[in-house]
Each structure stands twice: as structure tokens, then as C-alpha cells.
Specification:
329 residues, Rossmann fold, OB fold (Dihydrolipoamide Acetyltransferase, E2P), 2 domains, 6-stranded mixed beta sheet, 5-stranded antiparallel beta sheet, 18 strands, elongated
């Protein structure tokens, strides 16, 4: 694999007619890191990835890979490779020929390209399936083949467009571990587009939260989760209550909201329990309050079942001052 270098977006913009999909974003992806572009549909994350790959032209701004400006280079000359959401395998040729296809296009002889393809299939634990056709593979196996095919060009940056979205939940978690392992072993940068908060938190060294074509916040997963800067980030990353408390907007993690059956301090906020959701290790209470709107409290399962609360009950809420995180206007 090539030596990993920084990837930088400089005022990178994408317009479709009069619509601005990506609005002059600046960001540097560190060398040999796993980054996740996170956000809802239409936020600009996939357009950003496709501009990095060269599959969308850049309306304004630049894309730099190390010391090279790759903004106007064709995809094959950029030092990047892309793994598509639908895997895009050729149905009529074998697994090994799918993996070796880009080397074939470069004129590499059959023996050499198959030798390299076998190395990649071994890396993704698919050596035993080299002679099969794609439709003889499961979804997870097809994903591994697509990953090997993307890596055979020895990219500096691997781009992944929602690579886990087609997998069932159990396989999705397994493949998350595989992707992170591969990124560490290869020592190259991965840039991964997802709308799944759990996926981003589990995989990323850095999460870049996008909304409306701009970057709302970027940082380490723990800092994004514990210290969201805006109401959008707090709501989208999940696990938070956004509260307008005496004219000041704050975010409080659901697991930091204390729930009691009595007003122990004569200053707690009353709430009605609207719903209860058992999640295994925790229980979520959906709460309605007169002054603060709808809130969610996450209780450890043992805490809840030691003293259960019924739907319709009145409870009292409080939180520690240090657990209330101020949000930007």
C-alpha cells in the first residue's frame, strides 16, 4: 500500500444547478485515520465523498492529497479507491476476476494480477471463494470481495459509501470490526459515509457531522457525543435531551437525567411517564413535562427493575449542573 498522507478539502463546493449540495467546506482528514462523514439524507456527505473520488466534479474549491492537488484528476489517477454501496460486482465473472479487474484494465498479465488478487482475498478471508460467481455469495461475502477489489489498486485513501447498509444487524456489527481491523493493518486512511450514529461512534477516529451542505461539528467520537455544539448535533447523534431551561438551550444525556418517584429536594421537575422501552442493559422512559416538553431518561436495567415505574405514573426529574452542556444558538 502507498504511504498514507493527509487529505484536505479547501472551500470545496458542489452545486447541482441552483442547488448547493456542499457549501465551501474546509476539513483535513489526518493520515492513516478512520473518518466517518455522518448526517441525514441530503446533508451533502455522499456528494463530498464522490468529489473526493472524482465521480463528481468540484464546482469550486480544491481537494489536496498530500502535496498534490487532485481536484481535476480522473478517478484512476487520484490515489483513491471507492467501495460502492451496492458493491457493483460483475455478475458474469468469478470472484478472483472481479478483484483483479482494475489490474486487467491496466494491462497487467493474468498470472500477476491473479497473484495479487489472491493476496487480497486472503486479507479479507475469502480465499476459498475465488472461483465462485457473485450471486453464489452472501451479502457479507460480496462486501468482502468489493473491499478486496477496491484495495487492489493500493490506494492512499479508501472511500466507503454506506458499505454496511445492506447487511443484517448481526453481520453489520461483525463487518464493523473487520473494517477497523483492516484500516489498522493497512495503515491507510478510510473515509466512510454513513447515516448511522452507532456505526460512526464504533468505527471512527474522527466524526464529521454534516447538515445542509456544511460541517456542523468534527472531532473524536467521545467529544462529539459528550459535547455537541449545536441542537442539530445533539439531536442527531442521539442519546440527548435538548432543553430550553430559563431561556438557555442545553443538552443533557439521557443517562444523566435522574428520575425519582418523589420530589426529594422540592425543586425537581414533575413529568408523566408516557412509554417504557426495555433495551436489555437499559430501560428508556419517554417522559412528558409541562415546562420542558418531551424528554427521554435512560436507566440501568437493574435500577429500573429494583423499583419499577408504571406508564402513566408521575415522576420527578433532576440533573447535575456539570451534566448540562450549553449549545450554540
Amino acid at each position: 500500500m502507498k504511504k498514507s498522507v493527509d487529505l484536505e478539502l479547501v472551500a470545496t463546493t458542489k452545486r447541482y444547478g441552483t442547488t448547493t449540495a456542499v457549501d465551501a467546506i474546509d476539513h483535513k482528514f489526518g493520515a492513516a485515520t478512520y473518518s466517518c462523514l455522518l448526517g441525514p439524507s441530503g446533508c451533502g456527505k455522499s456528494s463530498t465523498l464522490r468529489m473526493i473520488a472524482g465521480h463528481e466534479y468540484v464546482s469550486e474549491g480544491d481537494i489536496l492529497l498530500g502535496d498534490e492537488n487532485i481536484t481535476d484528476l480522473p478517478p484512476a489517477k487520484r490515489g483513491t479507491a471507492m467501495m460502492f454501496q451496492n458493491y457493483a460486482l460483475f455478475p458474469h465473472i468469478s470472484v478472483i476476476d472481479n478483484v483483479a479487474f482494475s489490474l486487467r484494465m491496466q494491462g497487467v498479465n493474468r498470472e500477476a494480477r491473479h497473484r495479487r488478487a489472491k493476496d487480497l482475498l486472503e486479507l479479507v478471508d475469502m480465499s476459498d471463494f475465488a472461483d465462485r460467481l457473485p450471486d453464489q455469495l452472501s451479502g457479507g461475502q460480496q462486501q468482502r470481495v468489493a473491499l478486496a477489489r477496491a484495495l487492489i489498486t493500493e490506494p492512499t485513501v479508501l472511500l466507503l459509501d454506506e458499505p454496511l447498509s445492506a447487511l443484517d444487524p448481526f453481520l453489520r456489527i461483525k463487518m464493523r470490526l473487520e473494517l477497523k481491523r483492516l484500516q489498522r493493518e493497512l495503515g491507510i486512511s478510510f473515509v466512510h459515509v454513513t447515516h448511522s450514529q452507532d456505526e460512526a461512534l464504533a468505527l471512527a477516529d474522527e466524526i464529521i457531522v454534516m447538515n445542509g451542505g456544511v460541517i456542523e461539528q468534527a472531532g473524536a467520537p467521545r467529544s462529539i457525543f459528550n459535547a455537541p455544539r449545536t441542537e442539530f448535533v445533539a439531536r442527531f447523534i442521539g442519546g440527548h435531551n435538548v432543553i430550553d431551561d430559563a431561556g438557555k438551550q442545553i443538552a443533557i444525556r439521557a443517562d444523566k437525567l435522574a428520575v425519582t418517584k418523589e420530589d426529594l429536594s422540592n425543586s425537581e421537575r414533575p413529568a408523566s411517564v408516557r412509554d417504557i422501552e426495555y433495551l436489555g442493559s437499559s430501560v428508556n422512559l419517554t417522559l412528558s413535562t409541562p415546562a420542558l416538553g418531551d424528554l427521554t431518561a435512560a436507566l440501568p436495567d437493574q435500577t429500573f427493575f429494583n423499583d419499577p415505574i408504571e406508564i402513566g405514573a408521575t415522576v420527578f426529574l433532576s440533573w447535575k449542573a456539570e451534566d448540562a452542556h450549553n449549545l450554540a444558538a
